[in-house]
Each structure stands twice: as structure tokens, then as C-alpha cells.
Amino acid sequence: MTVCKLCANQSLKLVRTIDTPDRFERAAGVPVEGYHRHWYECPNCGMATQILPIASSNYLDSVKTAYYEIDIGSGKILERYCSIMSLPNHSSDNYHRVKRILSFIGQLDIKGQFDILDIGAGTGVFIAKMRELASFDFNAVMVEPDPLVGQHLQSLGLGTVINKPFNVSGFVGKYDIITLNKIVEHLEDPVSILSGISDILRNDSSLVYIEVPDKISLIKCNDEDNMLGSMHHNLYCPSSLDKLVSNIGLKVVNIGQIHEPSGKYTVYCYASIDRRNL
Length: 278
Fold this sequence. Notes:
- By secondary structure, this protein is an alpha/beta fold.
- It is about 30% helix and about 20% strand.
- α5 crosses α6.
- The radius of gyration is 19 Å and the shape is globular.
């Protein structure tokens, strides 16, 4: 039985079936014959959940630590980083992401030490763009479990690199902003992983920025689009992202939807500590 991980609703609606393995499944050796994976929508909270074939789930366990090797290639990580960094501003998702965040946190009275925790730092473009565009200095901690990308991040010297999966209990610091850019959709049960994240926010003015693929991708994108890929467990709309934020003990301060220069459909929000849950 398919159950919504956000609201526990058991009456989910089948909205799309994909009949071809994606590149991650092909790399893992998932059989093509008889293949199907399904996207279900929760009519209660609005979150979409992907259900993989059991065989596919088993195969994918073997490639979870090789995401970037399959996506980019082990010898091309720096090349990809440089390519994205060199995009003109109007074509860069990261440029607009950083400008959006800097504009929003401009309301904060930034004095002295400012600490950023970037969960799922990828190739490091986001923090690099922050260093390029921010008018203030900051300390950056980047969490990235992929071993190849971890080595790449260390070589960039953008900040402290934690080369292992994120775990709230493993952090003792306090952060002014925590960012999760296109990460939450990779979490099968995001509530269990992100619960308690408020404990590592510095104060009531500190923010968590979450950016995820928009559920509208199920209508707008073709079967081969990575937004609908096997590594994405869930897709969100504003109401389901709001529900997720509430379930992890935060409150939404601002929420929005955008169509990015790359063509991605995205939902994002800023959240802060919800004192009602403490």
C-alpha cells in the first residue's frame, strides 16, 4: 500500500507511469523488459510520491554513492563546475538563486560572524556564487556525501567540507542560514531526516532555505527529464512544501514558484523556528 510520508493518507492517485529506466537505473543494470515506475499524488497535502519497482530499488542501492560519477563522470567534476560558473547571469540558475537569497536575508542585521550550512553542496557552485555576490564575509560548511565530489570541494577551498550524509545530531554549531538546494526530493522520508534542524539555527531570525522540483514537472516534463528520474522520491507544490516545513518543526516565512533559466520548474521557501512547537 502506498502511503503519503507527509500526511499518512492512504488514498493516493496514480498520475503518471514511466516505462523506461533512466540513466541511473541503466548504469545499475536494471532490466528494461516489463519495466514500470509510478508517480502517485496525495489529494490531501498535494505531495507526489514515486514508487519504483522492487528490482529497481535493489539495483539502485549499488549506485547511490556514485551519483556524480554517473551524472557527470569521475574526471569531469571540475569541468562541470567551471562550465556552470561561466554561464552568463541571465542563464544561470545559481546566479538567480543567490540573488534571491541575498535579497531576502538583506532584512537581517548582519554583523560579525555569519555562518552558512549548505546541505548537499554538489560541485560547490552555490557557495562559490555566494562568495562572488555577497557584500559580507561568511563562514561556509558544505555537506556532501559523494566521495568524488567531496575531494573536489576540498580542492576549491570555499569552506569546511563534511564528506558524509547529513545528520542533525552530528552538528554542534549554530547557523544563520541553512540551505537545501534540490536535495529534499532525494530523501525518501524527509521528515525523519530533517526533524530537529531548528536545533542548529542560531536564533529566531535564522533561516532554512529549501528548494525542490515543482510537482508541475509531472505535466510539463518528458519521461527522460531528470526531475522525474529514479533518484527523486517526491515532488512538491506550495501546500506540500508548507506541510513538510511544519512537520519538521519550522514555519514558512515566504514561499514561491519559479520557472528557472535552465527550464526547471521549482518551488522554494524560507522557513524559521516555530516557537509554537517548542
